């Protein structure tokens, strides 16, 4: 790809950026929390059809996925769950095929009064777009779509098959991405524009979600000593799991990538419910937890360690010793992923990055997870993850930096052109 072609594509990104932001605003404005992603999938389907892509929009059947590597259990109403894929098929086959993927699900906004502006009424100010999902990762998904638009607007068309995928469940199980693979979609490489601050994810953690179900013995609080407080017992188990977190972080010091980080394994008791009355000793407590694992660590083996840790802590508790807690696997059962055997797509992206940013992209050792794992681990598809800068993901006043988003879109457009090849339209 010559310099003139590159510049025409870069100029097309600039020319289309205001329209890109308008589409991003519309996308962010949809409150696509778990189970409510349908309107976002409708929007993506419409955008793809308008552009002439062959659209596959299907309901996800959990029974088709439950035996596949990386499947995590679904607990909520999944009757409206859908994946959407738009396929571009070239007239001339001259390049390498590509999956462009983004997730449209977002985490809950939390107390609305703690946001400076409403989370689903996106606002642009000070060079940033604010809103739930603006950073993680709706701006990246729309950026990938407009990167394809820029190639067309510059007068070119790709010479390889491209699958543009919009998935759900990235924030809790990943079965949306898994469904696209079960459906049969494959390519020579995958690119996911998660917000990485302009760095390439080299290695990422996996995640295990589990629920502690703790029993107590209710009494009137006036006679609390004769009862057993399930909430306090749950705290006893949480303290034991914090010690397991310390052990796993010591183990992480042997990992060639994660040894560079001080505390890569994070345990989080993220959701707690318990008790029935303020003046009654609580008879029950459920705690939903998340803990990370590193690439190469067995999910099954680390589930056993969690079970053993909880059992040992229960044996040392007056009530739980005879009333052991239960553990439920409540979402992610996801392996870590290290990007390997990806020299060709990395070289193609390196050319694109150098043109836009200068130099070569830095590696990112990522203490969160992305859908890249399914493509790489399940089917050997090298899966790159690179995106814009932003902040407050999963927090209040989430935002994406617009100049960073523009640069990311340019890098994606040049990468697509380099990897897939282009010819005059």
From TrEMBL:
Give one Pfam family, short name only: Peptidase_M20
Cofactor(s) annotated in UniProt:
Co(2+); Zn(2+)
Q: From the record, what ranges are coiled-coil?
A: none
What keywords are annotated for this sequence in UniProt?
Cobalt, Hydrolase, Metal-binding, Zinc
Question: Could you tell me the superkingdom of the organism this chain comes from?
Answer: Bacteria
Give all residue intervals belonging to the Peptidase M20 dimerisation domain. 204-316
Which SUPFAM superfamilies does the annotation name? Bacterial exopeptidase dimerisation domain, Zn-dependent exopeptidases
Q: Which InterPro entries match?
A: ArgE/DapE, Bact_exopeptidase_dim_dom, Peptidase_M20, Peptidase_M20_dimer, Peptidase_M20A, YodQ-like
Under the heading Gene3D superfamilies, the entry gives: 3.30.70.360, Zn peptidases
Q: Does the keyword Metal-binding apply?
A: yes
Mind listing the GO molecular function terms for this protein? Answer: acetylornithine deacetylase activity; metal ion binding
Give the enzyme's EC designation: 3.5.1.16
Q: Which PANTHER family match?
A: ACETYLORNITHINE DEACETYLASE (PTHR43808), PEPTIDASE M20 DIMERISATION DOMAIN-CONTAINING PROTEIN (PTHR43808:SF25)
Q: Which family does it belong to?
A: Belongs to the peptidase M20A family.
Name this polypeptide is given: Acetylornithine deacetylase
Annotated source species:
Bradyrhizobium nanningense
Provide the taxonomic classification. Bacteria, Pseudomonadati, Pseudomonadota, Alphaproteobacteria, Hyphomicrobiales
């Amino acid at each position: 790809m010559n310099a003139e072609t590159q510049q025409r594509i870069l100029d097309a990104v600039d020319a289309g950026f205001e329209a890109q932001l308008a589409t991003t605003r519309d996308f962010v404005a949809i409150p696509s929390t778990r189970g409510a992603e349908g309107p976002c999938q409708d929007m993506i389907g419409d955008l793809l059809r308008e552009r002439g892509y062959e659209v596959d929009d299907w309901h996800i059947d959990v029974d088709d996925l439950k035996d596949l590597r990386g499947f995590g259990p679904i607990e909520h109403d999944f009757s409206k769950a859908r994946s959407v894929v738009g396929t571009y098929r070239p007239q001339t086959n001259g390049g390498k095929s590509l999956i462009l993927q983004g997730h449209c699900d977002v985490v809950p906004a939390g107390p609305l009064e703690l946001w400076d502006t409403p989370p689903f009424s996106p606002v642009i100010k000070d060079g940033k777009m604010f809103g739930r999902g603006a950073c993680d990762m709706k701006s990246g998904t729309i950026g990938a779509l407009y990167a394809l638009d820029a190639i067309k607007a510059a007068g070119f068309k790709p010479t390889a098959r491209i699958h543009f995928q919009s998935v759900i469940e990235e924030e809790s199980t990943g079965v949306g991405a898994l469904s696209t693979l079960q459906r049969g979609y494959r390519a020579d490489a995958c690119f996911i524009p998660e917000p990485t601050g302009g760095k390439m994810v080299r290695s990422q953690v996996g995640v295990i979600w589990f629920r502690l179900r703790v029993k107590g013995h209710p009494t009137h609080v006036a006679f609390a000593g004769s009862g057993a407080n399930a909430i306090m017992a749950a705290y006893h188990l949480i303290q034991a799991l914090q010690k397991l977190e310390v052990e796993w972080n010591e183990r992480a010091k042997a990992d060639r990538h994660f040894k560079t980080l001080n505390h890569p394994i994070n345990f989080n008791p993220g959701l707690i419910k318990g008790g029935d009355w303020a003046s009654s000793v609580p008879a029950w407590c459920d705690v939903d937890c998340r803990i990370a694992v590193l690439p190469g660590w067995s999910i099954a083996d680390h589930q056993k360690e969690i079970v053993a840790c909880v059992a040992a802590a229960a044996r040392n508790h007056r009530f739980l010793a005879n009333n052991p807690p239960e553990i439920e696997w409540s979402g992610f059962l996801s392996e870590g992923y290290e990007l390997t055997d990806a020299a060709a797509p990395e070289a193609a992206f390196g050319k694109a990055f150098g043109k836009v940013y200068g130099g070569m992209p830095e590696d990112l050792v990522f203490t969160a997870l992305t859908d890249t794992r399914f493509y790489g681990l399940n089917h050997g598809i090298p899966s790159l993850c690179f995106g814009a800068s932003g902040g407050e993901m999963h927090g209040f006043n989430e935002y994406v930096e617009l100049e960073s988003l523009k640069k990311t879109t340019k890098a994606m457009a040049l990468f697509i052109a380099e990897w897939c090849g282009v010819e005059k339209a």
